[in-house]
Prior knowledge:
The complex is a heterodimer. Helix content of chain A is 55%, strand content 0%. By secondary structure, chain A is mainly alpha-helical. Chain B is of the alpha/beta class. Helices cover 29% and strands 29% of the residues of chain B.
Amino acid sequence: MRADINEIKETVKAFVNKRFLKNAEGKELNYSTPLISGGIIDSILAMQLVVFLEQTYRFEFQAHEVDKDNLDNIDIIAGFVVKKLNA
Amino acid sequence: MHKVNKLYQLLENSAEQFPDNTALVLQEKKISYQQLDSLANKIKQALHSINISEGNRIAICSPKSIEFVASIFGILKAGAAYVPVDYNSPIERNNFIIENCEVAAIIITKDLLENFKNNFTFFADIGIDLVLAKSNKVTLKKSSEDLSYILYTSGSTGNPKGVIYTNAGALEFINWSSNTFSPTSSDCFSSHAPFHFDLSIFDLYVSIKHGATLVLIKEEVAKQPMLLAQLISEQKISIWYSTPSILIMLSEYGKMEKYKYDSLRLILFAGEVFPIVKLNTLKKKVKTSVFYNLYGPTETNVCTYYQLPENIETNIPIGKVCEHYQACVVGDELLISGKGVMLGYWNVPEKDNFWKDQENRFWYKTGDLVDVAESGDYIFKGRRDRMVKRNGYRIELDEIETGLSKHPDIVIAAVVSKNNEEEQMIISAFVVLRNTEQKSVIKMKEYCMNHLPSYMVPNDFIFVEDLPQTSSNKVDYQKLKQLA
């Protein structure tokens, strides 16, 4: 499956806003907002994000890939998804 | 075997009886009982060389490691008590703990020492990764020489409070665990909880008492269900102990079907309610295991227990009182008495948490409201106060409010909790700002990450102009709960 990186960013942003930032009115989050280190998602919510990415883009996370290094902001997430889809 | 009345003797006995057994495993590292005991002796000598003696308290601040465990036993061998400090918590909270219980020294990783340099002076390298630093304070309060550890837990005053344990008190629970679960030297225990949580008491001392192997789980692995599933299988864990939150995460997101868990004979959980639907999902994935619900606040450690039957459809009881305790119910509240109860809180003189009966016996008031089933099992109903459990962590909502009230833009904040439809605890903060242009949920979360332990960061922030009040001019928490 191919996907445009900007499209991925918008899709992830919409998901994070809807699921994890319901009182932020959708205006605050940007692509570089720290999600894990900024306290927006904890380890359980991170897994919800992982499942969302796996289902939306049809790839599988390896155990060691579920990590802050791949998930801490939308830019990083989109880059990781593109890398997985091109692998 | 020598008679045991101190925790460190559990290690010394096993080092004599099972010198070559593997005591600890951490990723690719291993250490035998004999090696662990001699490392602990080395740490004891380093402590003696800076005049640490009985009645002192020593902080430890480090990620989980083999040296951490050796330091615990070194401190205990020196006759001192250890105070584990969460290296992930905000520095101000950790400094409060260190100053509150007047530690004489700290054992810490080199990089973390920088955070405490006003309080401590570097003294010596003692292990591979840890250093010993001595307190700059000249006079320190001495405590009873039987103290073994102080575990800090969330406090309703807004500051954490230190639960004090003696060697004798801790051994009550450890011996009860031996009798109940019959571990052997071929068992392999998980060490999932960090050492500043009371679940670690079981992991550390029951495994070491029996010459078993303890698998230390690093903090970053501990929260990652796919890695946990792999670890349980590959390390052949036979006795697992964690909060239900972790087991639920493992069952829902761990891709458990990829591995086998034939060694896993016992799954113990404690710290919060395990929703029955989630438990039954997990049970199908580990069919060979026996499950126990262990209940008890840090102040008593485990005080009631319940072995799960084959099939269970109703809410899981917290079970019957452990054999080393007595329990009674006064006005729906569960009270516990016995030698395993904590000595008290550090520097908190009042005995509000205890009730003295007509025979002058002290009972610890758990604050938990219970029913008694026909079977005699206790059933947890809720709390008397504003303490909540989220993901197994104990949180006083007042501590979050106190943290928020220090924010320069916040006039007042009120925090409420409720369960969502998934039976997860959701914490909502209602915040009145000085300047409404400042309202940003993301900035609030960021602030909390820097000033509170991460598990206390509220899920939701709701900005309001005023907090609703009751007729007696107090914050109307009932109303806020409806709004949350």
